[in-house]
Write a structure and sequence with these properties.
With 179 residues, the chain is an alpha+beta fold. 27% of the residues lie in helices and 39% in strands.
Amino acid sequence: MASGDAALAAKRCLATGYSCRSQVKRVEGNGYAIRYRLYWRLSDDLETCRHATGVKRHGRGNMVGLLDIQFIRIGEDDLEATMPVDHRTHQPFGLLHGGASVVLAETLGSVAGYLCTKGEQKVVGLEVNANHIRSVRSGRVRGICRALHAGSRHQVWQIDILDEQDRLCCSSRLTTAVV
């Protein structure tokens, strides 16, 4: 059954035009969960991430630049970026503002989605949710974005935001449309 699931997942990836390899993992119970390993179609370098957010073209004049979101790593199946926790991202009680976490999550998911296209399409957010689990007062948080579904028209991304001690602070899910 596991090899059949892997073959089906690989066929789905090829049918959508995305080049990815699947890995079947056993989860609790009798079921199987498929985790996609993406191969970035457009590029796998950090400069493309910066270009996709507009920071390179517009300097610090957009939200990504103003909040100093920095892409730090493109993995085989994930994308990482950091954001400072300071006066720009604090809420009135001196903690990381939940909206800033959502900005980091949507930025990561949108750029990851863009990297899965040929560069001719746009990736826009349809829905985002976030569960704020732990507060952060200072330092930098790190977002890790992984695909739950990478289809030709819709994508679903899981973004986990960690503090400097690698503790989960926020868990977010973003659904995007490829237009």
